[in-house]
Amino acid sequence: MTRFIAFWNILAKDLRAYYFKPPNISWGLIFPFAWTGMFLIRSGGSLGDVLSLLPGVMAVSILFGTTSMLAVTITFEKKGRSFERLLLAPLPLDLLMIAKTVGAALFGIVNAFVPVLMASFLVDLSGVAWGVLLPTVVLIALSSTFVGLFVAVAVSEVFEAQTFSNFLRFPMIFLCGLFFPIEKLPSVVRPLSYALPLTYGVDALRGAVLGDRILPLAVDLPVLAVFCIGLFALSLRNIRRKWIL
Amino acid sequence: MTVSLTELSKAFGEVRAVDGVSFDIADGELFGLLGPNGAGKTTTINMLTGLARPDRGAIVINGIDCTKDAKAAQRLIGVVPDESNLYPELTGMRNLTFCAALYGLRKRERARRARELLDEFGLAEAADRKFATYSKGMKRKLTIAAGIIHRPPILFLDEPTTGIDVASARQIRGLISSLNADGTTILLTTHYIEEAERLCGRIAFIVRGRIVRIDTTASLLQPLHERHVVLIDLSEPGLVEWPLLAETFPAYRFGTPHAGQLRVESSEPLAVGAIVRFLEERELDVLEARRVRPSLEEVFVEVTGIEADVMSGEREKPGRGK
User: Fold this and answer.
1) pLDDT tens, B1-35?
2) Reduced to 3 states, what is the DSSP secondary structure of residue B207?
3) CA distance A145 to chain B (A)
4) What is the ipTM, given to two decimal places?
5) Binary contact (A85, B103; C-beta < 8 A)
6) Do the strands B154-158 and B77-80 form a parallel or antiparallel pair, or are they unpaired?
7) Are A88 and B74 inside 8 Å of each other by CB?
8) How many other β-carbons are positioned within 10 Å of the β-carbon of residue B222?
9) How far is CA B242 from the centre of its chain?
10) pLDDT digits 0-9 by tens, A99-122
11) B residues 141..180 contacting A (CB < 8 A)
12) Cβ contact (<8 Å) for A9 and B98?
């Protein structure tokens, strides 16, 4: 019970103080709208294209909603020394870091459903496999959040967190099949795509929304889960090495 | 609730921040760690609280081996770091209730305890103001309140009065005394000699990561009770005839702690009038002569070789020892 109280209060504080603030809510609304609009204008497409764009817009909304938010908030707290207060609490480090990351993951999940809500007014979503879409969104949100955590541990300044996040995120937009099929990438670059977690997330999302995927779901979701566990374990190891001197 | 450190060492690269530090703190004791900035005080506190890993040595808090499991002892300890580490965007009240939640206090108990501490620390009127808007003294008081929100039996205070105004510092010293009187075991690090002398029952002098002397405050001060000191301010100190002075008053020791100041020390009561007459007869202009009560500062200077000026010169600097 003691641990649950601490866990819940860390999560609730972060949601209130960082994630569900008006500027972030407006970002969550504008961001997917801008991406959808951009691709529709670019392709001169009809409303039918909304559905084909949906997996990519969902993925990019999660990616941008989680990585830098978490990296920036943790770096900010680390710099202001308030993170030290958390390290002094009688809470296991793994539980503490889960409490710190769940807020960002929830923010990413909410962001993912903003384009879904928008699309529901424009196209028929009755063919979407919600049972696949939901766990995929959760896993993408977690893996992207843990990328943010990895960034937070690697940097010491807030601006570095932004820069390093972008360094990882922008290549993912092109390499992970969000808007450009992986099969059309140069063959030398393609292995890199499969080294990134988002590739598997987008593939599973495309399967859930469009019924069109490269890899079987039995590969996509477990690989995403392995990325989540690996990134979290790596970040914990780095925290123990870098922050507990 | 006891704290025991044995041969604790920590290096950062080539720098030995803490080098073989050993001491015990008894239940209910107020123990002082006194030393200049960079002496290893904060590093010692960080190792005690689990924020740093010792390279060598042992830490045992109430029977818990903290070098093996630092988290296990964190429930027993409260920590007030040298710089405030609360959330600037939260109010004073929210900061306290959040810190209470980290220790598992339930909602009603959190609010009750936070209000109690805000009242006790004179911060009730600022309870709903953001921490970022607090003055330095208020921030320090709220940080101490956050450190004791879960009623820890052991409290580590790192430079609690550094960089704050005199009135707030006095109030904080009062709070520390009353916490100790209520039974809290306290480790206080400071570079304020008079603060350590006033508050602590036992003091360790730490210099360059090593403990150079450790004793009760009374024992440290005991030799000074038989020492008599007079400071004489002169307008032209260069004209003092030192050999003649020493020959005339063979029982006294003379020194010049500052330009323009003559320090006279003796184990017997000093004849101040005779010294002043001697100086004035040689046409030296005596501006002031005053008896001073020898303090812990004298012991510290003798033991560590560090001039008190070095310590007092650091008063305005925030703690930088890590």
Assistant:
1) 699 999 999 999 989 999 999 999 999 999 999 98
2) strand
3) 22
4) 0.87
5) no
6) parallel
7) yes
8) 12
9) 37
10) 999 999 999 999 899 889 888 888
11) 146
12) yes
